[in-house]
Input
Amino acid sequence: MTKSKTIFACQNCGAQSPKWLGRCPDCSEWNTYVEETIVNLASPSPAHDAFSTAPKSLSEIQSDVGMHVPIGINELDRVLGSGYVPGSVTLIGGDPGIGKSTIILQALSSAARRGQPCLYISGEESASQIKLRADRMGIKEANLLVVTENSVERVLEHIKKISPQIAAIDSIQTMYTGEIQSAPGTISQIRDSAGKLMYLSKASGVAMFLVGHVTKDGSIAGPKVLEHMVDTVLYFEGERGHPFRILRTFKNRFGSTNEIGVFEMTGKGLLEVSNPSRIFLAERPSSVAGSVVVSSLEGSRPVLLEVQALISGSGLTNPRRTAIGLDAGRVALLVAVLEKIVGLQLADQDIFLNVAGGIKIVEPAADLGVIAAVNSSFANRAIDPETIVIGEVGLTGEVRAVLGCDIRLKEAEKMGFKRAIVPKSNLKTKIPAKMDVIGVTSVDSCLQTLF
Output
């Protein structure tokens, strides 16, 4: 026997209501509530039974540590934690056209080339469309099988029949199950479809990759329920005007989080960028005011980036504050420090900040570099192009220590930098012999050293 009930669910945040609402009380979005029918089964499905096990002692359970299987794409293996784990479920999200389907096809091709049978399930494109993309990218592996299907039940039959080592679903929003009467793409369909695929993956040991669409605010459409269900969450980042794509780890049960992989989009697919610092600094101008190099630590990888600032007089009542690649709230804090502590008159100035290359800096170690760039542009005095600036800034103008200063300096030395401005408390770390490393304790001492 089955029981069903009708609810209204927000397609943006997943909130539920017994009646239709014009505006969601949770996410404040308008006209996002859709009627859905929820079916409660009297007994669990076979997929649930396959995943269930008898209780065991913790000492009897075998650990999966060290069971990573390399795919063969170094940048992708890095963000996964040296490869995929059999029986794991990975969710890949990103804006339309950023390269989700491309990286999945390349990953399956690389794994198939290593003798691992792979299955690519597409709910959006026909087999001929996938073939055209594969021909353009030079993919011809016989172990890579392609099927176009939207029904989760038939997808599960294909996976059980073929028994691939890796299966990819592109995309999870196009899948539907006959047990739910709502349309594909609704919250109930996405949650139940992903759940069935997850249970099969855990029971059979098939590594599952799910491609997820994103909403207009940049989060996985589904919404957060998918991120809680899967083992690994990867997000594609990048600007449409830049060829570089950043694959960032937001969740990983088998490795570290906040790792990044850097790719370059070309006509033949995504190419790995093994040395991101060299790429991002390749076109950096020399001896120009408002330009400074900072170091961002992405997981275990230090990346050198150029922060650019442009300060100009404003004719507006409220001067503009624009930050691309930096947190706007953090920039406002640093501008306030410059006005209060250093004494710069920025109240009537437009401030524009940009991180060259289209990458986003999410850690505070770039604070001192942002302050140096703003001061350089305001005073119209260039910073030595062979100097790198590292440090976190507090509200009282003090410079605080940062994590991983030794590996940041090592990367800077490898890139040819001769001098580094770092927090004084970080001088205890190992310092490269060929670099002049200067420790500072405040914003004032940093600016005096630079200018």
